[in-house]
């Protein structure tokens, strides 16, 4: 396996433009190591770094299926497995985002809370 | 710079196709780009710059190469195929990143050496990520310490008058060395009579003595 390619693939896990970011979330949610992830996607283990360096499928319905198919064809993957992995990761990311938003809204609401009225004599 | 190895890379036609694919939103072009150029860029940077930059590693080159690739993947429109080959563009971009990173690293090293020429081993240990030495300081802390020492030396007579009467004969000799700007550990170790100890221990004792001296000086000044 090309270790430089692997290192670059790890570096872009924080970059949401890359498939690496989505696969990292998916693998963590399923407790998968690289071997298990490669097996789940039907990808040879030594092609995993190159797969991670793809751009992630665009979420718009007009693009999603075509993008998944392009990646799957290029790497000989099961397109359904890839689509499932991406959708699952997106759902997790959305959920985290919603939680952050919900927490933010709650904190903002608390900030806006009026002080309790003074005790009546 | 890149012309000598361009033949190993994708042909001009392949480069244009790759760039077009990036512009058109292909999902796999980024991966193909990285596979085609990462090693080439890394090796080329290493070949051209290893003699120029002290302490340069292959990893530094791989990082700069990766940065250049990721930048192009995010902004393929910044490359204009009419102005030259893609390999050359990527190499120039990576070389720019590498130069900036190396200049920063060199500035850090020079700053440390300017602050204390005897700290060369600190520079090496920092570069090696070795944090084991007790007197390891970050550059800002080291600079502050050296500035305080210089300030004290500028008031040499006052320091002699204020501290000289409280020190032993050995310490008085070391104090004179220090006021003359001596930096070598062995000179202080000889004055303080600890040359029989291993060098790391000598360093620790000399540093402790200097720190104590500075604290006494600063305390006295506050009380004046």
Major sheet size, sense and barrel closure of chain B: none
Count of spatially separate domains of chain B: 2
Straight-line N-to-C gap of chain B: 64 Å
Strand content of chain B: under 5%
Largest sheet of chain A: none
Spans of chain B with pLDDT under 50 lasting ≥5 residues?
1-7, 126-136
Q: Oligomeric status of the shown chains? A: heterodimer
Please mark out the parts of chain A with pLDDT under 50 across 5 or more consecutive residues, or reply none: 104-118
* Number of strand elements of chain A: 0
Mean pLDDT of chain B: 80
Number of helices of chain A: 6
CATH top level of the largest domain in chain B? Mainly Alpha
- CATH topology annotation of the largest domain in chain B: Rna Polymerase Sigma Factor, Chain: A
Large-scale geometry of chain A: globular
What would you report as the Rg of chain A, rounded to the nearest angstrom?
Answer: 20 Å
The portion of residues assigned to helices of chain A is: 55-70%
- Helix/strand class of chain A: mainly alpha
Q: Based on the structure given, which CATH architecture of the largest domain in chain B is correct?
A: Orthogonal Bundle
Order of helices and strands of chain B: HHHHHHHHHH
Percent helix among the residues of chain B? 55-70%
Structure, explained:
The complex is a heterodimer of chains A (121) and B (224). Chain A has one domain. Chain A has six helices and no strands. Chain A is an all-alpha fold. Chain A is 68% helix and 0% strand. The radius of gyration of chain A is 20 Å and the shape is globular. In chain A, helix 2 crosses helix 6 and helix 5 packs across helix 6. Chain B is mainly alpha-helical and 224 residues long. Chain B folds into two domains: 113 residues, Orthogonal Bundle (Rna Polymerase Sigma Factor, Chain: A), CATH 1.10.1740; 90 residues. Chain B has ten helices and no strands. In chain B, helix 8 packs antiparallel against helix 9 and helix 9 packs across helix 10. The longest helix of chain B has 30 residues. Chain B is rod-shaped and about 80 Å long. The N and C termini of chain B lie far apart (64 Å). The N terminus of chain B is likely disordered. The interface between A and B is medium-sized, with 25 and 19 residues.
């Amino acid at each position: 396996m090309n270790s430089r390619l692997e290192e670059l693939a790890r570096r872009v896990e924080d970059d949401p433009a890359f498939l690496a970011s989505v696969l990292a979330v998916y693998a963590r949610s399923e407790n998968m190591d690289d071997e298990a992830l490669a097996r789940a996607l039907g990808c040879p283990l030594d092609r995993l770094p190159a797969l991670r360096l793809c751009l992630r499928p665009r979420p718009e319905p007009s693009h999603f299926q075509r993008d998944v198919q392009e990646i799957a064809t290029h790497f000989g993957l099961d397109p359904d497995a890839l689509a499932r992995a991406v959708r699952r990761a997106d759902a997790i990311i959305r959920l985290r985002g919603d939680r952050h938003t919900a927490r933010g809204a709650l904190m903002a609401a608390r900030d806006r809370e009026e002080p309790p009225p003074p005790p009546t004599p | 710079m890149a012309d000598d190895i361009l033949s190993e890379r994708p042909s001009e036609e392949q480069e244009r196709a790759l760039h077009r694919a990036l512009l058109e939103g292909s999902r796999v072009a980024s991966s193909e780009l990285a596979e085609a150029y990462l090693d080439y860029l890394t090796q080329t940077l290493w070949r051209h710059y290893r003699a120029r930059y002290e302490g340069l590693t292959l990893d530094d080159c791989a990082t700069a190469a990766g940065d250049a690739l990721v930048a192009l993947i995010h902004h393929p429109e910044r490359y204009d195929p009419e102005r030259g080959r893609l390999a050359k563009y990527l190499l120039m971009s990576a070389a720019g990143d590498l130069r900036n990173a190396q200049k920063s690293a060199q500035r850090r090293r020079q700053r440390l050496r300017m602050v204390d020429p005897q700290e060369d081993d600190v520079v090496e240990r920092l570069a090696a990520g070795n944090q084991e030495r007790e007197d390891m300081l970050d550059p800002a802390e080291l600079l502050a310490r050296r500035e305080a020492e210089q300030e004290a030396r500028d008031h040499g007579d006052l320091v002699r008058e204020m501290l000289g009467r409280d020190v032993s004969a050995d310490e008085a000799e070391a104090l004179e060395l220090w006021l003359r700007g001596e930096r070598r550990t062995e000179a202080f170790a000889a004055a303080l009579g600890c040359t029989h100890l291993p060098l790391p221990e000598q360093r620790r004792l000399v540093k402790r003595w200097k720190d104590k001296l500075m604290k006494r000086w600063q305390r006295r000044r506050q009380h004046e």
